[in-house]
Amino acid sequence: MSDYHDRIEALADRAREDRRGFDPPEDPPDEERAVKFLREGVGEVVAVYVEARTGEYAPLDRAEMDGLERATNDWLALYARCHGREIAPDFTVREVAEAVVETRDVVTTAQLLTGVPDRESGVAWRPRVR
């Protein structure tokens, strides 16, 4: 267990509660709520992950990584539902964090990874594999 355990647990709990209490918008998209899930959810998860992986490296155990990934995928699913789409994202926190670092924007990252909303340009983007 790392020094980040309590923060990770709180994020995972909050994501689970957001998913349980979610009421889909009557007239999607609800862009304001979608962006809130990304900035206050996915963005916070990425921040914890990056903080743990940089500076004084803090190894995260499997349960902590699972918590971060569940929270990330819960919030990405809610982002899509705010746009009237049902998806079952299955991204690692590393994939999402690398995409955020590369795009420098959590909203752009969510659009690229989930395909929500549909991109008119047809440009495919995936995180670099190292």
- N-to-C span: 27 Å
Considering DSSP H and I runs of 4 or more, what fraction of the residues is helical? 55-70%
Radius of gyration: 14 Å
Category from helices, strands and their pairing:
mainly alpha
Into which percentage range does the β-strand content fall?
A: under 5%
Low-confidence stretches: 121-130
Order of helices and strands: HHHHH
Average of pLDDT:
91
Number of domains: 1
Which assembly state applies to the chains in this document? single chain
Number of strands: 0
Largest sheet: none
Number of helices: 5
The rough form would be described as globular
Region (Disordered): 11-31
Domain DUF8055: 2-118
Biased composition (Basic and acidic residues): 11-23
InterPro entries: DUF8055
Tag the structure with descriptive keywords.
62% helix; 0% strand; 5 helices
Protein described:
This is DUF8055 domain-containing protein. It comes from Halorussus caseinilyticus. InterPro entries: DUF8055. Helix 2 packs across helix 4 and helix 4 crosses helix 5. It is globular and about 45 Å long. The chain contains 5 helices and no strands. 62% of the residues lie in helices and 0% in strands. With 130 residues, the protein is mainly α. The C terminus is likely disordered. The two termini are 27 Å apart. The protein has one domain.
Write the layout of secondary structure elements.
Elements lengths: L4 H16 L10 H23 L8 H21 L10 H11 L2 H9 L16
Helix pairs in contact: 1-2, 1-3, 2-3, 2-4, 4-5
What's the short version?
The protein has one domain (5-114). It has five helices and no strands.
